[in-house]
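Summarise this fold before class:
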Amino acid sequence: MTQKNTTNRRRFLAAAGVTIAGVPAAFGNGTPEQGPYVVSRRRAVIPYEPDVLVVGGGPAGIGAALGAARKGANTLLVENHAFLGGVAAWSLGMPINQMRPGGRARSKVHELLIEKLTAYGDQALRIGEHQLWCNVDYLKVAVLDALDEVGCKYLVHMRAVEAVVKDNRVTAVVVSTKQGLATIKAKVTVDCTGDADVAYFAGAETMKETGSLSPQTLCLNLTNVTTNQVRRANMAQIAQRAREKYPLIPKGWGLGRVSNAAGFYINHAGTRDLGQFDATDPLQRSRAECLSRRQVLQMTLAMREFGGEQLKDIELIGTGTQIGVRETRRVKGLYVLTEDDALTGRKFDDAVAWRSGFLDIGFVRLSRMKIHDVPYRAILPEKLDGLLTAGRCISATHVAASAGKSMGNCVATGHAAGLAAAMCAERGCPPRELKVSDLQDALRADDVDLSRSGDEQKELVNRG
């Protein structure tokens, strides 16, 4: 189903005396339906006007911010949460997949993050066939270290709530702060929000299959159990025996070790068996979050009560900051990536990144695919300028989106979008007028191999 911005929200803002930039023009006396109201005059001032504004500090946003700042652009990264890292941080140790497919360095941007993690020792990082297992609290600081090295500014506790559009071009983003709304102007903006928030607020056409969205998962950490005990436990049998008492638990789950620490994480089917939840719908998102909190507790109690000697003393020590969302809105671009592109390893003349791993619809479907290109057209909104997209909200079908959600792939599309944004800001051209061959040359200079499309992969995959 294709979704476009409704005009109701903007009409309400206009009726309330608020411009698209979130600045009050006047106070009204209310509407017949709503009665009197007052619009706050309090506004925050952010003392930055960057060349490149990156919205969202998850893997895609980190890639975009590092890519833009390394190119020399005055770059600002803003994030809603209290820390950077996104799902890589609030997944509590779930591996960051596809960072080094085939054990090969993927780009200077990927390697910079790995370098900063490695500096903190083996408690911070364990490197696998293609993935990184991290202690997330080391990761949160390693991201800051990487951004500091390239001179990127960053601000947390800032949620994008509106976009400013002039002549069909995004010129600024309105963020919510504790001092009120603030408007941040930029020459080019990169939407790395995952849910395509900036693009949606700006009026870009988005795509969202509300009947078949991938499930959400609240990850959790456990301790007071050994690796041998975990190996001897049969989670599927535990789930089967415990479901009558604990009806929210999934059909089975596995425990993975956090970096080189004594703790374990669980990434599981989450809301798959609890119903369909659209994480951009405030009511559905709230229900998914609250059900997931109950689910985590029930899983822990089920292991303690039905896990025998192996798991009777297992302890829950933490849950994610929020549910991990695998799929919501995707921005309709000049090209829409398809399932066939992923399965056949399609090449594109305007390739600016590639995606590796498995076609994985979050515990619903898992299929082998080939490494395949991401064309520049897939990170460009179809009818809006001044904006690039990266991460899971790039232009792709429902199935094709699942082929690119591994975090290393999100870093890669972020890297391409950030580098493109920096080049556009420097040249004074809109993103759709950037010469793609120049962007490709810049990516190659950052050690991105744009000839990987069509390759088969032999590594195992850790599901996300």
About this structure: The chain has 14 helices and 21 strands. The CA atoms of residues 234 and 307 lie 8 Å apart.
